[in-house]
Amino acid sequence: MEKAPPTKRPRYDAAFRAEALRLANESRSTLAAARALNIDAKRIYAWLKAAQPPLPADPTEAAEVRALRAASKRLAQELEILKKSHRHLLPVPVPVPVPDPVSPLHFIEQQRTHYPVRQLCQVLGVVSSRYYAWRQRPAPGAGTGAVLGWETEMVAVFDHHKRRYGTRRIQAELRATGHRVGRQALRTALRRHGRKALQPKSFVPRTTDSTYGQRYAPNLLLDQPPAMQANQVWVSDITCLPLASGAWSYLCAFQDLFTKHVVGW
Question: Is the dihedral of CA 119, 123, 126, 127 positive or negative?
């Protein structure tokens, strides 16, 4: 059995490397440059690393230089995103006609091969979950039933629990039935259907009645020196604790002022 001849590792001259670095710097995306040149992105990463000035020998200074380079690259990318987007997004009140206006979601979809999606969403003020939900949304006219399906289920869950469920609980109920919907989409759909959850005030038992009209007990420790030994002065107070059954239980505790230990309850 004859062995296959070993494959030769491709060699790239200085002109090709310079063109690859130029594309990577202009597009701000190494992956886009690698796809355009039909080469492995790892090669461009290695060439970019070799083209950078050497780092200082001190580890602390080297870490600072790396952080500054990353921050400079991020700011340059954000500036380019703003330059590309400010005349193409709707709605933008500009006096001149906007050429080919698009929504922020369409703009992110167009530029996702050149910039990270998280950075695009951050610069344009778009929640990343909203963008990914928009990408998974079916085409107009094709998936109307799927959208109405989870909204119908949402309304049914909301009405079944008598307006006591918010977006967190509704999201858990929908996931159990196979609908993966974000909380922001649920808020929008609830407003569209005129549903608003109740916000009941939590019950807290009162342990002090200030309206019974009698005099307060005098503070016997007001003019006394601090305690100098254990078991010289005890103080007490009462509070309430919620039980697992939903009821409440009152607790009275005694504390030693010198040791700060609870000596009884």
Answer: positive
